[in-house]
What we know:
70% of the residues lie in helices and 3% in strands. By secondary structure, the protein is an all-alpha fold. The protein has one domain (13-407). Strands 1-2 form a two-stranded antiparallel ribbon. A two-stranded antiparallel sheet has the order 3-4. Strand 3 (434-436) and strand 4 (439-441) form a beta hairpin. Helix 3 (85-94) runs antiparallel to helix 13, helix 4 packs across helix 12 (262-269) and helix 4 (99-127) runs antiparallel to helix 14.
Amino acid sequence: MKLVYDINDRPKFGQLLIFAFQQLLAIMAATIVVPVLVSSSAGLTPEVSMSTSAALFGAGVGTLVYQLFTKFRSPVFLGSSFAFIGSMVAAFAGALSNVYLGYLGLIIGAAFAALVYVVIAVIVKFAGVGWINKLMPAAVIGPTVALIGLSLAGAAVKDVFSYGPTDENGSFVMTTPIWISLICALVTLVVVILCSTYGKKMTKLIPFIIGILAGYAVGLVFTVIGMATGNNELIVIDFAPFKALVADGVNLSTFIAVPEFTFVNAFKGIKDFEVSYLATIAVAYVPVAFVVFAEHIADHKNLSSIIDKDLLTDPGLHRTLLGDGVGSAVGAVFGGCPNTTYGESVGCVAITRNASIATITATAVMAVLISFISPFVAFLDSIPGCVMGGVCVTLYGFIAVSGLKMIQKVDLENNANLFTVSAILIPGIGGMAMKIGQVTITNIACALILGIIINIIVNKAREVKTED
């Protein structure tokens, strides 16, 4: 892919801020929804729920740590990991209703996950990445990357039909008629496509910002009409985040507020800590870390194909693992959520063809700063699900297409490759997942593991076919 901005290119300062804001919009929804889902699943009251602004701060700091470890050579943002949601809920459950001990468990768990990454990184440092390429060639990685995008299709469609005020769990209230949300989503989607396809210069580089603003504007029109006529079904935008800013009058916190960092609550739980709690956390986090490791490789293989540079050799898989692991742990200290490389960020790089590390770094700094600015956090929270759904259709679609492009390079006339790809796609799309105790092995992880096993079984046949 021909990039407009390569890794080492630095856009002008004004453009840099706009590009960074676009990346932030791409990753924002998924990043802040994780603490909302965990708080809901763990039964946390609003007074002690996880903070979305702290999660945004943690994602920004985690990304900066990742960039340091990778020597600013890998253009991807780290956001809250969905894979660890079950682990985080288990941390609160294992604390036996002591919510502050649960917050301490979030930090300890992220440290356990980081330790797994560090151990694997050391092995990779001395053993190299050749064994990984043999275990996971294009016939394995290609369909796996495609699955990452396809598995998110349901979430994108659900967002398309989500709008209006949210319930106590932070979920959009789905009301009828659904055509209202569909219009907002389609406007967003079409504007993104038009800007990216026919746009000139700057317009082509910021299709998501323009698309989101267009969808938001349409939603605002419906909302104003709904409020004026008393028709709640026309209210697309939830202004509750803005109302919360002035609930106690206009004061300093209306404009600037320090996020409720995880380590502050964790300190309150230290006095109740018991060694036996470590086992609960280890069982919840360590197995998931191995699953996320496989997705880490798939994401970096995908990103490598987009920027035409092998990130597994430069800066090296050991560095990306250390950056992901340590960045995840540091991010969890502030936001509670272990981080991971984000497909939305990769998709944004692919669509805009902007792989500038300066953009990713500016995005991380912007995430940190914005987490303190109350009105801006409120605006981000108020973006309707249907608008983000319109954006996600393109982002997730590009991830899936990137995987399919990898499969194009595979000789599917060779049955060894054909069965390997098939053994990944069908179980993955079919939703084959397993739950062992409190550990959930996702459909992507199950499909990848099955693909690796099949690849090992048929590898000899593949080599014989090649020799012929």
